[in-house]
Amino acid sequence: MWANIRSLIDIAIVSLIIYRILVLLVGTQAIQLVKGVFFVLLLSLLASFLRLRLLSWFLGSSLLALSFAVPIVFQPEVRKMLVELGRGHFYNRPMSADEAEVRVNQIAGALQYLKAHKIGALIVLQREDLLTKYTETAIHLNANITAELIESIFWVNNPLHDGAIVLDKYKIIAAGCYLPLADAPEISRWYGTRHRAGLGVTQVSDALVFIVSEERGEISLAASGRLDKNIKDFQVERLLMHYFVGEQVIKGWKGRLHELKKIFWTDTNNQRPEMRSGGDLVN
Asked: What is the Cα–Cα distance from 175 to 122, expressed in whole angstroms?
């Protein structure tokens, strides 16, 4: 009797571990590899059942080679999974509204301060696509998200104020990050390097970027290769709340894309798609 219970517990724990690993990998390129590995395993079992020795040897050798190649090729995804485990997010507990509100108030408060004092800033919100290539050469902080820290980083006399900060839903990852410039000549005539950098990183990732202009004292939003100017304070708070808790209830990439379009680019006029007024966002 005890042996049966122990076996059930053993199976349940292993099943939970496999399930949680798959959940952490969803939305990354590594999930396609997992599908391929499952296909190879099924084909290998079929080859063994039919006693196809050459095919069984070939598939076995392929799986052995994959065990060495996967950690190298998919290093960012593996790192993300280990970071999530280290943070205690193995159970993927959704962030509560109260936790999200604290973070939203800190970031929104910092943006309002920077805008009021016309201090240039570049704040990148990391989503599914890891921005390791930009953070690994920057100053690693791994610090709590606070308005005071964000404001001090972008203070004029701070050595880090010219770069961007990259944060996720839990920490400020790094500061002094240098981003790729957008390949959009029509944008560069109106905006400087800071806006082109904020727009550029959204052309190669799914990041969201808030940009504070020191010349005009306004906040712009860059996302999916588009730039919306003069974002209002309440819109900043709504976008941040969506970032911290809204995306967790959107199922699938199609639903996520539809929701982002509905929130970011509800166009009500004929302005150029690359630059729209903040009034075109949600009310």
From this structure: 10
pLDDT of 184: 65
Q: Could you report the per-residue pLDDT of 214-253, keeping only the tens digit for each? A: 888 899 999 988 888 888 999 999 999 999 887 543 333 3
Instruction: Return the pLDDT at 87.
Output: 54
Give me the amino acid identity at 105: N
Q: Taking residues 203-217, what's their average pLDDT?
A: 90
Does the pTM surpass 0.85? The reply is no
φ/ψ of residue 177, rounded to 5: -85, 135
Q: Among 1.25.40.10, 3.40.1700.10, 3.40.50.300, 2.70.20.10, what is the CATH number of 97-280?
A: 3.40.1700.10
Residue 89 has pLDDT above 60, yes or no: no
Q: What is the DSSP string of the chain?
A: -HHHHHHHHHHHHHHHHHHHHHHHHTTSTHHHHHHHHHHHHHHHHHHHHTT-HHHHHHHHHHHHHHHHHHHHHTHHHHHHHHHHHHTT-TT-PPPPHHHHHHHHHHHHHHHHHHHHTT--EEEEE--SS--HHHHTTSEEEEE---HHHHHHHTSTTSTTTTSEEEE-SS-EEEEEE--PPP--HHHHTTS-HHHHHHHHHHHSS--EEEEE-TTT--EEEEETTEEEES--HHHHHHHHHHHHTGGGG--HHHHHHHHHHHHH----S---TTEEEGGGS--
37-68: per-residue pLDDT in tens? Answer: 778 888 888 888 888 888 888 888 877 777 77
Residue ranges covered by each domain of the chain: 2-86, 97-280
Rg of the chain over CA atoms, in angstroms?
Answer: 23
